[in-house]
Request: fold
Amino acid sequence: MPRSIWSGAISFGLVTVPINVVSATEDHSIRFHQYHPEDMGRIRTRKFCELEDREVTSAEIGKGYEPARGTKTRPEHIIPISDEELRDLPLPTAKAVEIVAFMPAEEIDPIQIGEGYYLQASGQVAAKPYKLLVQALGRSSKVAIAKYAWSGRERLGMLRVREDALVLHAMRWPDEIRNPAELLPAPTDVSEPAGSNAHTPAVPVAKAAQPPRLALVDGLRLAAALFVAAFHFLGTTNPAILGESPKEFSYLVHRAALYGWLGVEMFFLISGYVICMSAWGRSPGQFAVSRICRLFPAYWFVILLIVARIAIIPMQTGDIYSVIHPRVVLSNLTMFPGPLKVGLLDGVAWTLDVEARFYLLMAVILKFGATYHRMMTFCTVWLVAAFITHSTQNKLLDQFTLSAYAGYFIAGIAVYLMCRFGQNMMLWFLLGMAWAYQLSVLQLRVNFHPATSHTHKTVSWTLCALLVTGFLTVLMTASLGPLRRIRWRWLVTAGALTYPFYLVHMSIGIPLAKGLTWRVPELGPWGTLIVTMAAMLLLSYGIYRWVEKPMSKWFRRNLMKGLKPKEKPEFAL
Reply:
């Protein structure tokens, strides 16, 4: 345990946190001694008084300040200062680390940052306010700027969080940083002649700081996709998929799988959180590029894969050509065949249309710049519009307000704002109103999901409401609570597989399961299901690894060029 080198208190507002300061680093460099090679005697430094020409002890040495350096014609003048006088200096930050401001870490020039020290809570009384400060800094993704006094001098410092511990970095005052202007080379013309093929060397540019990625949120996305898959495979009574009806070989699992469609609702909730996080600080063009690169490469590949499957292994009766007619394929490749009055080749792709409308709404707010107050206003106006749309049943307005799902997106945004700016009554009120609205309109979705075949009885609204509320609770715990510390790498991989798995599990997975049931009946229902899910996960990894990643990079590189096109030389003024 390192020893304390300073003790005092952190103060901000009316809160005081007693702390001990310990060094955050260790010096492992090899230290050499000076010696006399002839007799191996140690060379030591001794302190002499130049006037008395004798060695003095530490007790005989005092401190002094020299206002101006002495010269040959003007002897030096030293003003003596005693330790008592230093202790009596009127420093307001003596024995205190006084927080004066909070700001994003990326706004601090690294040249100002110096040595780091750990701040340890001094005693049990300091434990709670210490933890509260750690949580506040962690949620806001900001650092605290503070003043403190060591050795009779007021200093500038930066407080940040490192693995749930506070770190104090010494900082240089702005007037201590030399102006680099005198070091710059003489002005030189480096402009390229018009029409030249010269290329600017690629220089790596640091990305703006983002809130830390929450691995568990990635895991929740795959869990939602698996819920949807369970609904399609086990929530049905069709015996053709697994050889016999799930209701017959596992009644309890079948009953539970009837609620798997709620995975789609979970997707919309997560999307509100993730899209708000990824869009923050971007322009509408940059946001559009990020969404195109994320959605289209894998989607196009899956559509072409479905067309190839239908052409080679047709499993439906009737005119196959009409199913994969070029007009049908082209309409599906746009990702929005519904508005074009064309059927879906991938049955689950209807959710992408809902997501795209949400992206359009986000692009509008990004046009003005995403800030806390603008996002709060946006969510409030959207929620009011959803109320009006639901009460008037205006179909045109519903195309923009998404009244059946608006509460999920707004709740996800509210959770992200809590994570970024801290919890407050306004955000809790927004979250509560959005969730109350969403649970009220949830009945519209419940009405489309019968509890048993050939009856009008639907699944339980109460159980649906409890399940989605439980999922919201897990999301909040993963972003605001102790689960945010989870950093398992496989969860990030799981999140990467979610989108391709969601696209292929039904249109490719169900035909595969039917084929296995017909060709390899020995597997049985559970064996067929396990083999099918494993195959879909492997296919999803292949799509992610060899289609989505390389195509996304290529798309992003070329689409970003389109945001700032260069005018041709003959049109230059």
Q: What stands out?
A: The chain has 18 helices and 13 strands. The longest helix spans residues 524-563. The longest strand covers residues 153-162.
